[in-house]
Amino acid sequence: MELKDRVALVTGASSGIGLATAKLLHKSGMRVVMVARTAAKLEAAAAELGEGAVAIPCDVGDLSRLPWLIDQVVARFGGLDVLVNNAGVHYRGDMLRHPPEALAEIFTVNLTAPVVLTRIAADHMRAGGCVVNVASLAGKLGVPGSAVYSGSKAGLRFWALAVAEDLERRDLRIANVNPGPVDSSFFDADIQGVSNLTFSQPMSTPEQCAEAVLACIQDTRSPMEIDLPFASGKLATLGYLSPRLRAWLRPALERRGAKNKAAFMRRRGLS
User: Fold this and answer.
1) Could you tell me the CA-to-CA distances from 123 to 2, 170, 252, 262 in Å, in that order?
2) Cβ distance 79 to 7 under 8 Å?
3) Domain residue ranges in the chain
4) pLDDT tens-digit readout, 258-271
5) Rounded to a whole number, what is the largest CA-CA distance in the chain?
6) Which residues are within 8 A (CB) of 10 and not within 5 positions of it... i.e. 6 or more apart?
7) Looking at residue 246, what DSSP letter applies?
8) Catalytic: 91?
9) pTM for the full model?
10) For residue 46, pLDDT beyond 90
11) Which of 91, 149, 187, 199 is catalytic?
12) CB neighbour class for 35 (10 Å; exposed up to 12, middle 13-18, buried from 19)
């Protein structure tokens, strides 16, 4: 896809992977619609990018607002070429420590919103367009302490793999980027709730995730997936295929993860 002057919508664009993706797509010549809940932070980020970047504050978890969101994009730019479903919510630790409403929110934001937003956007996306989901390696192998999050990301991955056929009829593509742990503020709110198993894998940066999103947009395959890091994706697949191997490896991975987590907390000044 020739990117210059194409239109991309990125959810969760005020920080982390979403902000890094918006910056990279804008640098690549695209016009970028940045979406997030916090208006002031989002508008400051769009202003920093300058011409060609537009901020539209919107909570994608409010499904009733999604038709309005796409209407705003079409009114400003006449259509849409790329949709990046990046916004995500995670309440960490034992599922039973959280109220039912919080668990429902995880599925609404991480799974239902991307499905609904893609369905609405598909009626306005130009031929050759692409949907990219920021899923997770937790969606390839359930992670204890992230049970509901893992379920939401698994649903997102498998929906994308299945819906590719439907989108192909409109000459649209779909892809998943599946990061492991990412060195961003996503952990900071509840660092104690992040499992040692999560920290057992090498961290990616938001910029590496953004590069993977861009690679999906430029590829011609559909569906496609990129795991970050590659080796962690293969390990997740092996663990899924062999529960016995997963159980055998888990103690060593948790010990390594505990060390990595302690180092991360020291570096970020967290306690």
Assistant:
1) 21, 9, 49, 47
2) yes
3) 7-268
4) 999 999 999 888 87
5) 55
6) 18, 21, 22, 25, 32, 33, 34, 35, 84, 86
7) H
8) no
9) 0.95
10) yes
11) 149
12) buried
The string of pLDDT tens digits covering residues 183-240 is 987 787 788 888 899 999 999 999 999 999 999 999 999 999 999 999 999 999 999 9
For domain 7-268, the CATH architecture is 3-Layer(aba) Sandwich (3.40)
Place of tokens 């079409």: 74
Structure tokens at 225: 């997936």
β-sheet with 80-85: strand ranges across? 53-57, 31-36, 7-11, 80-85, 125-134, 173-179, 224-228
Backbone angles phi, psi at 129, to 5 degrees: -75, 170
Burial of 244 from C-beta contacts in 10 A (0-12 / 13-18 / 19+): exposed
Cα 41 from Cα 38, distance rounded (Å): 6
